[in-house]
Amino acid sequence: MTTSPSVPLLDPEARHVLDLGRQAAVRPFEAGTLEEARRAYGEGFPALQGEREPVASLSERTIAGPGGPLTLRIYRGHDAPGTNAPALLYLHGGGWVIGNLESHDEICRWFANMAACVVVSPAYRLAPEHKFPAAVEDCRAVLSSMRQAAGDLGIDARRVAVAGDSAGGNLATVLSLLARDDGIKVTTQLLFYPNTDASQTADSYRRFADGFGLTAATMAWFRDHYISRASDIDDWRVSPLKAASLAGAPPAFLAFAGHDILADEGEAYAKRLQDDGVTVVLRRWPGQIHGFVSMGRHGPAARQAVGAAVAAWRGFDPAFGKAQAD
Predict the structure, then answer these.
(1) Locate the Alpha/beta hydrolase fold-3 domain: which residues (predicted)?
(2) Where in the sequence numbering do the catalytic residues fall?
(3) Is residue 108 part of a domain?
(4) Confidence (pTM)
């Protein structure tokens, strides 16, 4: 049997994770109740996460959000400046439905230490209890709060970046465009396999519909919990690929997995950014699957991707070196 050169082989670590899932015979989220899906996710992600390495400090605070109190987890990395530190607003993945502060804790720790920065991660409202645009509104409020409380947080309000994975990557893209429209400077957007088109018609949905972790059926289940009506699919705040223009968006780092239903829409978003004059650093992990940055227990690709994002961020923001020298 000859393998098509257009379809790279799975990396051993990705194959191992898929094998673990098959051995556990975990029921697809869409086959049970919302409560069962959240419970299964909560029980499963610790077996995938990488090391929760120590940071210089870890705290939580609550701010007033548009729908009620919002919890923020704040990480200060080792070697982060005590004042005017670069800051990262990290928005967790989980299909807008199942993620939480714990599920992406190790990624936030890695960012804090690798970038010597302050990371803020919010527990934004989840669907279906809080449908679109609740999560968008929460993330927008957190960005505003970070800027207003910059002195208290020890960060530079002019040097805030946004990041996220999957649905969190979707929120980060949308927040970057909203900030552009509001005249708020976001220095960088760091996106891991972001969802950019809720139409779910890209060819990668066919190529990787089943058997590669995130399935087309599960992604439809996530989307349908998130939106209130079919017309929301065409709202650019759900599908940023449909935005009229991406010009003026912050420089972007995008990381993609080769065996991922979201691969094609991510590639399309990267091209649109470039076509609209936005600086883009694009990295591909051809043998990986969706969510690999949250699978650090099973191989080096997760930390490599975060490291690549930090390197791109430093390249986009020349003030990094000056801040460290000061």
Answers:
(1) 88-293
(2) 166
(3) yes
(4) 0.95
